Amino acid sequence: MIFVVLLTALAIAPGYIESTSSSSCQTSMELDNSCGSYCYKVVKPILGHINKLHNQVSSSQERLNAEEMEAKYFDVTTRLRSLEAKQAVFEQKLLATEQKIADLTDKSSVQIGDKQYYIEDRHKMNWFASKYRCQELGGHLASIQNEAEYNALIGKLDRNHEYWIDINDLAEEGLFLSDTTGRRAPYISWDPTEWNGHFQPDNRDNVEHCVHLFHRNRSLKMNDADCKFQLNFICEV
What we know:
By secondary structure, the protein is an alpha+beta fold. It has helices spanning 2-18, 21-103, 127-136, 147-154; strands at 109-112, 115-125, 140-141, 163-168, 177-178, 208-216, 219-226, 231-236. The chain has two domains: 2-98, no CATH class; 104-236, Mannose-Binding Protein A, Chain A (Roll). It is 50% helix and 20% strand. Strands 1, 2, 3, 4, 5, 6, 7 and 8 form an eight-stranded mixed beta sheet that branches. Helix 1 packs across helix 2. The relative contact order is 0.11. Keywords: Coiled coil, Signal.
């Protein structure tokens, strides 16, 4: 008898859970007709318990959905803060670079064609430090492309100074490359003067691997020199 009652309860449970007060009365009448008042008294608590479980499951699902949304929100917020931090660092570097460029005097910054040069006449550095200084300014050591550009540039230089440019043969002796492009230097104007029976480039003492401009015969010519020498330099920015 109890088994029949349980089957009856399970069969009508969905209807009971979703029913209104009027449909509950109808269910009561159906139970009275099916198995009498005894069945109804037994089944009613079971239906109430099933309804309670249904409400608990619904509440748990809502809580899980809320926790999932909260986790997603936390993840998005964390990523956003990370991007904001990276942007702040980038902006600081940009401001620092702009400030360094702004500090350049009109005398040391010259425009030739579509290129802007910074001519360092005040401080001397070795070739490597000069290269990094130019990079700090957002550029590189001057990369001379042709004779016209060369003549225009040397016309702006103090001929009492010597200047590093981007040409070197550090990778392979005698193969002079532009440090800017990593390719053969497109233009070179060596000093034609003979020095102790040698013409430039002579790689004296096997230590001369960086190219600089120096005063020779009323002009500035190119010569290979020890990269550790402290010279002025030209940046292309």
